[in-house]
Structure formats: C-alpha cells, structure tokens
C-alpha cells in the first residue's frame, strides 16, 4: 500500500511545521488550520484508524499522545481557556488521512455539536 502523507512527514520526505517529536510520536501544525491553533499529534507506528486501537496494546501510546497534547496546549497558551481533541474515524467520521491522528484545536470558542 502507498505511504500516506503523514508517513512521508514522519520519514522527513516532505516538510511539516513540527512542534514536538519523540521516539514514538510526532506533532505538527495542520496545513489547513480550522482554528488559530490546530496541531496534529500522530503515532510513528502506522495505525490507520481508531478502529485498530485496543486499550491493552495501545494504552501507553495513547497516553503519550494525550500528554503531548497537554504540554503543547500549554506552550501554545490555549490550555487555561480550553481546547478540543478530536479523532475522526472512517468516511462518515470525516477522516481524510488514514494514519491515526489526534487533532488539537484551540484559540477560539468551539461549537457543539461538531459538524
Ligand atoms: P482528517 O480529516 O481527520 O483525516 O484530518 C486530516 C488533516 O490533515 C486535515 O485537517 C488536513 O488539513 C491535514 N493535512 C493534510 N495534509 C497535510 C500536510 N501535508 N501537513 C499538515 N497537515 C496536513
């Protein structure tokens, strides 16, 4: 199967505005931001969607992704006011890139329900 755009970012084949990197995850600014702060937090492991996640195997990875979201939110100055974390899953969930990613959105008032 062809590499996703996010795999190419992990492999540094295409550029991204990276804000955090560890052995297992990468975070970079969304190229088409839907909020003043819009960052994508992704595992380096190729997991297509939330459907392939199970708590026993992936709990530590998900924990690291949430830790990164919290620390990036603080650095971006959006932690106190509040922010939104989103996993889109599958076609009807609005997922466009089939490499797991956690959206961190902030810097404006979010609406609910999400569209
Ligand atoms: P989703 O719809 O949940 O799959 O979100 C995919 C996100 O990836 C969208 O918000 C896109 O704007 C973003 N995106 C696509 N290509 C890139 C890229 N090369 N660099 C940064 N963000 C991207």
Description:
The protein has helices spanning 5-10, 55-76, and strands spanning 18-21, 25-29, 37-43, 83-86, 102-106. Strand 1 and strand 2 form a beta hairpin. The model has no long low-confidence stretch (mean pLDDT 97). It is of the alpha+beta class. It has a five-stranded antiparallel sheet, covered by helices on one side. The relative contact order is 0.22. It is built from two helices and five strands. The N and C termini lie far apart (31 Å). The protein has a single domain, classed as HIT family, subunit A, CATH 3.30.428. Bound molecules: adenosine monophosphate. The site of adenosine monophosphate has 12 residues, from loops.
Structure summary:
The protein has two helices and five strands, in the order H-E-E-E-H-E-E. With 115 residues, the chain is of the alpha+beta class.
